[in-house]
Write a structure and sequence with these properties.
Six copies of one chain form a homohexamer.
Chain A: E1 6-19, H1 28-35, E2 44-56, H2 68-83, E3 86-87, H3 101-112, E4 120-127, E5 132-137
Parallel strand pairs in A: 1-3
Antiparallel strand pairs in A: 1-2, 2-4, 4-5
Amino acid sequence: MTQAGRAYFGRRYLISASHRLHSAALTDEENQAAFGRCNNPHGHGHNYVVEVRVAGPVDPETGMVVNLADLDAVVRARVLDRFDQGNLNCDEAFRNLVPTTENLCRVVFDILKPNLPAGELECVRVEETENNSFEYYGG
Amino acid sequence: MTQAGRAYFGRRYLISASHRLHSAALTDEENQAAFGRCNNPHGHGHNYVVEVRVAGPVDPETGMVVNLADLDAVVRARVLDRFDQGNLNCDEAFRNLVPTTENLCRVVFDILKPNLPAGELECVRVEETENNSFEYYGG
Amino acid sequence: MTQAGRAYFGRRYLISASHRLHSAALTDEENQAAFGRCNNPHGHGHNYVVEVRVAGPVDPETGMVVNLADLDAVVRARVLDRFDQGNLNCDEAFRNLVPTTENLCRVVFDILKPNLPAGELECVRVEETENNSFEYYGG
Amino acid sequence: MTQAGRAYFGRRYLISASHRLHSAALTDEENQAAFGRCNNPHGHGHNYVVEVRVAGPVDPETGMVVNLADLDAVVRARVLDRFDQGNLNCDEAFRNLVPTTENLCRVVFDILKPNLPAGELECVRVEETENNSFEYYGG
Amino acid sequence: MTQAGRAYFGRRYLISASHRLHSAALTDEENQAAFGRCNNPHGHGHNYVVEVRVAGPVDPETGMVVNLADLDAVVRARVLDRFDQGNLNCDEAFRNLVPTTENLCRVVFDILKPNLPAGELECVRVEETENNSFEYYGG
Amino acid sequence: MTQAGRAYFGRRYLISASHRLHSAALTDEENQAAFGRCNNPHGHGHNYVVEVRVAGPVDPETGMVVNLADLDAVVRARVLDRFDQGNLNCDEAFRNLVPTTENLCRVVFDILKPNLPAGELECVRVEETENNSFEYYGG
């Protein structure tokens, strides 16, 4: 059995949330030009599919990179309970940050990075729609 | 070539919108019990996949049930421009109607039914997430 | 708002189970001819995607055909806890029934039919792989 | 076990083919108006996903509506070997028929209807792209 | 907020096109051996799903790697208007290049590389069918 | 045409197999804690989607990284005929290895690595369900 290889586990979660794209650093006209209809004051919403990708060795006793139940518990407590069924603009992470999907991706990465039960967080991928996706890899 | 058969054309569109589930006919406690987190005051969002299903004969000259460009124009003008990138609760259709996906499905059906460029509207199907879907067939 | 229409709610669940296709009514040769590799004594497995389709009026107060949490509780208690992560051949429902996906579909239909929290069970659909699906409508 | 119910088996196949939409009954201008870019003389192509839906009783001995290997053999010999990796316009079925997806759906239905190894052909569904689908039910 | 990380935006587009696999460098027998049915003179077709993957910093004011509308305009003008609904063999890019999906991937990469409105083109991915995909990363 | 770039071809296959998660290195209680319901003695099953990703130059004559038919023949002979429709626990590769999806991924990688007809094996990806995936890259 190859031992030197790299193994990854990816797990998908769902966040249904609303947001309004608006940047305090831009004028109303610039906001409208940059975000179009996504700048409308009442917001709109998405089903964000969030994939958490964990890198690490395969444990020889359990055959796992990370225990699925342990990972789920962390993601539920720190990410889903916080953002699912909510409005991103109301969360403190987005007080000074436009709640684009790129920034949601970075926020989730920074939340999970120090808290994984095993392995190392390689990246967070967020699918905003079936045609648009974002990935963020830590520096 | 069989002539007596029934033919259907289905076309999928995307609506990204936010909503808050809250019924004026219920108390706060009943709203909370019925809708759970979906009742939170800031709303949340979805990518609704809306499938419009048109029944009709296949035109012998064009080989089509309905011309795709004509159908798209109607759906864009009457449904997408109205609901996409918006908040369902702000639309007059939902002034006295809880903006559940079931009701969105019925509202879209009633809007499109008298306005198709060809064929007859058989049903509207809305996928709220990849696991939840709704269909509405007129009476 | 149209009132006479028919509305349906579809909800997908996942069952990961193993099975071996073998009919006590057939000889070994007939079993091999009918089921091929699926007749191998050690069994094999699938991720069955089970869609439960509920028909019924949209409740005017809640805007729902059936409350999602109530439906989930019934399906979890009666179907998922019984079949998920197990071997279909070991369940009493398949003591005298070949555990094909057609029969799994019928067994789930018969279990859920009298137990829905609201609405009426229209059909159960099981996707055995992304290319094979089965649907069962009660008589 | 319910015996009076209706059971269906659906099986997906892939046809990669090219076509040019052009009707001999229309002028060049009418062809251009009806089909747009799909009327270009060099044709274009699709991966058509063809779903064959078979209705019938579940055989009590085998637990099947139709044996998968038997169905595959018929569809391969009569449909895939004829249309896959080809140009629809070159097939005799489309000599006097515009090769729209609606008409492909009807042609496949008429070919398979009298040739199923078991059960009855309920409908043929063709997905032209992930957003456009067609279904044909015999008369 | 982590600043040193790498962010990517992926956007999917659809090209419906026909092609015939035939290499001028091979004999008829070698073409037949290499390409099988894909070498038939009338060509066949696909729905190519083209994913453009852009790397770059997240703009602190807009929260974006690249503005979606700007990227769409470039891809539409330079790639979709050129290849969608057409025959790859007729395009000058494939005058001396077999129009395999690998080569389509490279051609699209080379077209877009110097023309992105923001960020840097990391790779182009083309899904020929749901089971076959290709990716090309510049040197 | 860029020549220095890297090209990849990915091809998906399906393995329907059963397994039971149980480690000889753990006590019964530890097995139960690590694997939960997946430790039940009768096993359960999955449709594993196995993606083989091949890296290599695009052959200037054929326009391919690897000939699809050649790759299919190798994967069929060495992987599908061995694991599809079977029980992973019965295969010698898993005699001393817990048959988790991580380990299936590594086993398939090690089998295919020295046997590709062209190009180089970059990684093997296995999707256990639509929400869980694993990738293995050789060292």
